[in-house]
Amino acid sequence: MIYVRQHGEVAEGSQLWRNRDFSVFWASQTLSVAGDSFALIAVPLLVLHVTGSVAQMGLLTGLATAASVAAGVFAGVLVDRLDRRHLLIWCDVARMALYGIVPVAWAFGPKVWLLYVVLPLSEAIGMVFQVAYVTAVRGLVDADRITEANGRLGATAAAAGVGGPLLAGVVAGWFGPTAAIAINAASFGVSALGVLLIRLKRQPAPSPSPEEARGPWHELLAGARFLWRQPVLRALTVLLSFFIFLTLGLTDVLIYHLKHDLGQSDGAVGVVLAVAALGTVAGSLLVGPVRRRLGFGASWIGAIAVAGLAVMGLGVSTGVPVAGATAAAYLACVSVAGICSMSLRQQVTPDHLLGRVTSAFWTIHFSLGPAGAAVLTWGAQRHGVEVVCLLAGVACLLIAVAAFFTPIRQQNPELSGATG
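Request: output the structure for the sequence above.
Response:
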């Protein structure tokens, strides 16, 4: 499977460089993520500039995540039924149009209400895209290259995210946040063009199971049933749902901390998020070697534990360097844990179910997120960033401890049969 060197095969990476479709997909998605980083900064800044409220930032994040969760209920069925390549293209085109509306409308005056329309719709479409994206990786590379492919996509996307937030902060400072959102809209066009140029292989679907043959509702639940029947995936789904509750609003809290507590400029916010993105690069590059050496369980549990410590460190940071360093450590650990989790699902899930399993996982995974973002940002405004981050960090450590008493702790669950 993933650990090709343990089984005497060729070194990792020797085939991916010659995979033309993966290379095109890789390049276009990297550029798209660079554009996404503009919106990551620009949208909270628009809200903060107009309202001055971190609670409003959290409310918008929560509503957008709620829309994503709602879309996730049906995203898997769409991905498993429709042409995945065409679906990816149309999702990009739709998001390009939605984000393109914001700078045009803002030219006639601030319209915060428009963000409450555009962002939830974009996130809902984005959920469909992300589910299809995961299945696309499975359709571009062989099974024994999945973790490496995910790592490379994550690493270069994060590398683009290093320069993206930095440039976004400069653009927002010079031309306003709406200019940064316009760049994000254009990035979706680049992504659509890249997907247009690739081909995806897909395994023929077997005959519907008796449960799926009962009707659309049972087909919709097929992904959730698969997750529930796999002990490791079940435990991951539950624990990651609590983790996202604790951390979804962390970017808003970081921006608030930098602007409100430390009195930093928009450009400084971009610098900190760019430095933080280096953590994602590091985590994405390290996940393959770390998982080979330590195994799945130790990699995932260790990453969640260190992420909790980093969240606590963020709460007590008193300067830009410390805030950037702790945010980078947090994102590195989230990257390791996330890629391990996603790669395991891709490895053990039949192709015809992969969309629904991915959709079910993310729907459940993010179901507590909107409430968590609202609570985290409200708590930061009411009680201070330090208190909120210390409590969230301790809770993350408890999640790591709980994982040790589940099948997650196994070294190679995809090989040992622990997944089913």
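Residues 266-315 form the longest helix (50 residues).
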